[in-house]
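Progress note, sequence design subtask.
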């Protein structure tokens, strides 16, 4: 690691009724990967928006290469060599790689766009980054990982980037794609770029970062060397308490527990003859690599996709599920992995989102009762400890963990006995994860039955009573939690045919 490129200290930021940043600070050195971590709401995003010119600070100092500066706009930040790669990619899917990289800055020849030069400039940039991507490829044809690389290349095309902010860059990547990303980051830091790496995946930090800066409640906590600091200590700094979740050693479900859901021979374009049973009070994990067919299977169960064959039984009786409405009527609630797109209406309140699946029970013959909706929503805010100023607060203003709690409240109010959790803790910090785990265990203890899809093997081993493993649309293994390990799960997850 080299010289200090960037220092932010004494940073203050106020919003109406909220002291978002209180004396926050950050230091980035040349050729290092600095992790910036903290729970949702810790102030990470606000600090980065100040650094990239989206927000203006209310007080404090920003020093860049030893000179005190003011950053007044995103263009100002880019012109100074400070770029950001957002968690949600901002690429134009129907444009080429070159067109995306230089959009708004296209080279021209007289009155016309010089596409040949644009492609050449893009190729030179991609070659310099050792990226084997054609500049003429339409972006939607690339994998998510390669789109991520294009987004990074775009950021680096602005005026010789010296500081690159990467916000949850691995959130949507497979394990092999993450390895490719890390190879790329190591090459990048070797050129002297300082990288700020924001992630909720604690296991990544040891592998890719040099130092870790921790924030909590808008304040700076500490900066530590990654190699010499135990992860348990870092987690405690983040949340102000010790969190340790042991893997489950044995199932909590009685052998004679009744089967509440039975799926037999489910078939679609992406699902190949999948069968499984779910018992009352059980947490059934579904493991597999990206594209294994786990989400596709659950979309058949909840009627979101057309089923070509197979039967679904609830409490021993076959049910006809042709739509999500049929699934809800059968007592099945589905919590999508993309909660913002499929689970919530971000422009509506906590109360309206909570009541959405149970409006028929909260309505009179003509009118919906707002008072009844707000009262029932408050019950679930209190029950599962959702952090929100009020039930009238818009859901978009809540943290990821609390948004997830609103989705759970929606299905609890509907009184669904079967809950399908698809990646329940994706994009959620370690403290909120612990709360979601406790809530899921509490629901199972109360007799709810849960299917949990997760790409995090430690999460599956911590939560599941039994684990089904899929590969290429088929079930390739079934493991009782007492015999499940990361190694044998991965063996089944890469097994193309049932043995």
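Output:
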């Amino acid at each position: 690691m080299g010289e200090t490129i960037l220092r932010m200290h004494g940073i203050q930021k106020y919003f109406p009724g909220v002291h978002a940043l209180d004396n926050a600070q950050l230091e980035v050195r040349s050729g290092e990967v600095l992790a910036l971590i903290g729970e949702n709401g810790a102030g990470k995003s606000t600090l980065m928006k100040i650094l990239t010119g989206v927000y203006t600070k209310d007080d404090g100092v920003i020093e860049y290469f030893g000179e005190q500066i003011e950053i007044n706009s995103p263009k100002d930040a880019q012109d100074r060599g400070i770029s950001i790669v957002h968690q949600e990619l901002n690429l134009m899917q129907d444009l080429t790689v070159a067109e995306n990289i230089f959009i708004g800055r296209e080279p021209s020849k007289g009155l016309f766009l010089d596409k040949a030069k644009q492609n050449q400039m893009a190729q030179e940039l991609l070659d310099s980054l050792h990226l084997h991507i054609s500049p003429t490829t339409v972006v939607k044809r690339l994998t998510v990982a390669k789109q991520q690389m294009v987004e990074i290349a775009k950021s680096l095309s602005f005026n010789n980037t010296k500081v690159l902010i990467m916000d949850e860059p691995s959130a949507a990547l497979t394990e092999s794609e993450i390895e490719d990303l890390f190879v790329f980051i190591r090459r990048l830091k070797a050129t002297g770029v300082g990288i700020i790496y924001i992630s909720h995946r604690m296991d990544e930090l040891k592998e890719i970062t040099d130092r870790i800066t921790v924030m909590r409640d808008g304040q700076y906590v500490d900066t530590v060397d990654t190699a010499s600091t135990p992860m348990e200590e870092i987690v405690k700094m983040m949340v102000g308490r010790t969190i340790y979740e042991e893997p489950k050693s044995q199932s909590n479900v009685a052998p004679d527990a009744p089967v509440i859901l039975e799926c037999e021979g489910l078939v679609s374009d992406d699902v190949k003859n999948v069968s499984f049973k779910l018992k009352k009070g059980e947490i059934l994990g579904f493991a597999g690599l990206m594209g294994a067919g786990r989400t596709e299977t659950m979309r058949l169960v909840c009627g979101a996709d057309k089923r070509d064959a197979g039967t679904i039984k609830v409490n021993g009786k076959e049910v006809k599920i042709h739509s999500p409405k049929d699934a809800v009527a059968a007592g099945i609630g589905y919590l999508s992995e993309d909660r913002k797109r499929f689970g919530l209406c971000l422009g509506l309140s906590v109360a309206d989102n909570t009541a959405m699946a149970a409006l028929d029970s909260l309505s009179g013959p003509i009118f919906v009762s707002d008072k009844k909706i707000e009262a029932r929503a408050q019950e679930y805010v209190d029950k599962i400890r959702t952090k929100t100023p009020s039930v009238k607060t818009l859901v978009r203003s809540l943290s990821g963990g609390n948004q997830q709690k609103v989705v759970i409240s929606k299905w609890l109010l509907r009184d669904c006995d079967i809950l399908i959790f698809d990646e329940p803790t994706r994009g959620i910090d370690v403290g909120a994860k612990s709360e979601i785990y406790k809530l899921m265990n509490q629901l199972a203890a109360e007799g709810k039955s849960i299917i949990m899809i997760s790409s995090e093997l430690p999460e599956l081993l911590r939560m599941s009573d039994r684990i089904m493993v899929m590969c290429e649309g088929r079930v390739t293994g079934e493991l009782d939690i007492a015999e499940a390990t990361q190694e044998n799960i991965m063996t089944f997850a890469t097994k193309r045919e049932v043995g």
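The radius of gyration is 24 Å. Work on this subtask will continue into the next period as scheduled.
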